[in-house]
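Priority: medium. Attachment 1 of 2:
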């Protein structure tokens, strides 16, 4: 593959770090000029070179069945937290997006969530889910925050839509058939019911038309999460997301080839 032993050792060491990489003080430019490297010890810039050399794609041998099994487990854990637990009432976006683990408490069986309760816990458990993905720990703390802020809301909506679809519902809804719109929206939706139906039913209709499977959702979800078009993210962060998006795209294609065989390309 053309990688030196030192580079391989560095790459393996970085990808097993438990803490985030430290942001470059030189604007991710330490290794821009190979004839005049500004700082040999800058881990983030050296890691960027590994990403450019596609070391993740070449060295991380991902097994489709293992990936799907792991994502399924994570999604089930997220759903359990969403339905059966509560997040701290005073938690802020800064709190939930930092590197510490969010502490959830068991919800009383007789507690009935309001729209605002469901919306709040949905946001918190979704961010918690994304934070647990392996590649997120490879982002700097500043990149991690802008990344989470950029992607979590779309993930909330998509995952809830798929869950409603898999539950054979005709529109997006929270558990206990709680509406996804607050009561304050009734003034608008009563005058424009088509708008409400379009928002709540359109995605479900598309999912039903595609007959999407749970496995496809799990992989598509990560592909959407790994969108590298994140405002204010470093070049290294965007490279990392791009690498993982391509990897999961390849896994989705492989799943389609196994599942649909000759119809995989049109899938």
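Attachment 2 of 2:
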């Amino acid at each position: 593959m053309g990688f030196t032993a030192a580079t391989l050792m560095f790459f393996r060491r970085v990808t097993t770090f438990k803490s985030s990489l430290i942001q470059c003080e030189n604007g991710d430019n330490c290794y821009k000029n190979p004839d005049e490297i500004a700082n040999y010890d800058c881990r983030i810039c050296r890691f960027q070179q590994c990403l450019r050399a596609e070391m993740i794609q070449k060295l991380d041998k991902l097994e489709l069945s293992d990936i799907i099994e792991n994502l399924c487990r994570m999604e089930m854990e997220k759903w359990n937290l969403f339905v059966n637990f509560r997040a701290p009432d005073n938690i802020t976006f800064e709190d939930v997006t930092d590197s510490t683990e969010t502490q959830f408490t068991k919800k009383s069986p007789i507690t009935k969530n309001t729209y605002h309760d469901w919306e709040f816990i949905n946001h918190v458990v979704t961010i918690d889910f994304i934070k647990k993905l392996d590649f997120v720990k490879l982002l700097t703390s500043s990149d991690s925050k802008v990344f989470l802020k950029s992607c979590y809301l779309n993930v909330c909506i998509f995952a809830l839509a798929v869950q409603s679809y898999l539950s054979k519902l005709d529109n997006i809804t929270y558990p206990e058939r709680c509406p996804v719109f607050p009561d304050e929206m009734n003034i608008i939706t009563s005058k424009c019911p088509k708008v409400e139906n379009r928002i709540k039913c359109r995605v479900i209709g598309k999912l039903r038309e595609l007959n999407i499977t749970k496995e496809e959702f799990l992989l598509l979800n990560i592909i959407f999460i790994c969108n590298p078009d994140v405002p204010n993210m470093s070049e290294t962060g965007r490279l990392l997301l791009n690498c993982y998006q391509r990897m999961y795209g390849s896994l989705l294609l492989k799943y389609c080839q196994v599942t649909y065989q000759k119809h995989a390309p049109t899938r």
